[in-house]
Write a structure and sequence with these properties.
single chain; Ubiquitin-like (UB roll); L,D-transpeptidase catalytic domain-like; 3 domains; five-stranded mixed sheet; 27% strand; rod-shaped
Amino acid sequence: MIDMKNNKKKTRRSSSKKKSHAGLIVFSVLLVLLIGAYGAAGFYFSRHFLPGTSLNNTDVSLMSLDEAKDRLLESSRSYKLTLVEQDYYQETINGTDVGLDAVVSDGFYKLLDMQSGMEWIVNLFRDKNYTLEEGTITYKYDEDMLEEAIDSLECVDPQYPIEAKDAEIVLMDGMFMVVPESIGNTAHREDLEEKIKDAIVAQEATLNLLQEGLYDTPKVYADDEDIVAKKAICDEIVNMTVKLEFGMREELIDIQNIAGWISTEKNSSGEYVLKVNDSKVKEYVKGLAETYDTYQKPKAFNSHSGNVVEITTGDYGWKMDQEKAVEKLKKIVLGKKSVEVNLTDGSEDSIEWWERMAVGYDSNGNDYYGTTYAEVSIAEQHMWMYQDGQVVLETDVVTGNPNLGNDTPVGAFKIRYHQQNAILRGPGYATPVAYWMVFADDVGFHDATWQPYFGGTLYYSNGSHGCVNMPLDQAAKLFDLVYDGMPVFVY
């Protein structure tokens, strides 16, 4: 009798063994195929570049060495270099413009070794953007063509050249402003050429001239701490004025003038302070002197007859002490405060500005001789003394003997000093006088009791050594009326 139950169990075991054996065979076949495929891929990639591979930025994915070489050489022939210039302006240099060509070395054919053929699966996920070692591919260009291409660039020979300028402080509309720096738009020719050659050899796509520092650049920028500190110093005097009064006239020195005189410098503590330029102030003071000095300049004198007499000689007039004036103006500016200075009021401060002084200025800025002065007419042998515009003394006189070369000097003068009981000395004489009033070199008014009379033509025969001889009583009166500095006009 057959045991059906046991037969079923044996059948199931046999079927299970068959399935297991079949699965093993399938796995083995798949494994062999996989290994074969991996090996085949490894073999393929030992002769071809992996996907995503680039050489010198040229895609050579799945290419053989020969194909990659052709692609690289083709790329060099279509190569162009873009020059990025100021304001994003661009120029290009094409490979054909410079006769560009490329040659591969024997080392090129070893490039696939870096893929390690059988490790291709690992290399597949690595960065494969390679830069070829120097000499692997040699790029050549025609030197003359390159020179010509560079010379034609706008950045080398711009139509409107701009020089690099530092940021600077300027006065604009009465305010100090910082004018920003500017970068030159002409590239350094030699440096640019070297950078272009390097870029071509490296097959770079762009060359940024600003980033490479190929333009002239300023040394001072608007946001520099130093220029900010300097502006702060200048702002302290922006509203400053100096008023110089010359009688009825005045000179106003405002920030327009002062800005041209000043600069800033660091002191011993490293802080910026105001500095005044001597030469600039000297130039200004020289202009003042040319305008307001009247010494040795023609003077219009209203004579007793009502006629205007032009006097061109004499030492009466204003002459500025330019050296002292420069120092005074510098001191005022460094004080940083607005001031008014009356230069012709005879005050102690005003006197220090002048080498010579007159009585004052009239409304036209000319010598003002006031209403108190002496007048001498040689032709009339007469003199007049005016006080407050009125004649308070007049008398005949005897002036210098012209026949002996002792003419009384003509011109506009002033009383230098006056004294009593003086002795007048000269070659061969020593003459005592009671009243002596000097207005020129060793020439003055004095009493002359030895004269037989005064006026007329006596001076031709018995004239003085140059002085103005007067009767004793008139000399005494004149002595009481004159003051040192009083104008004297002789004509």
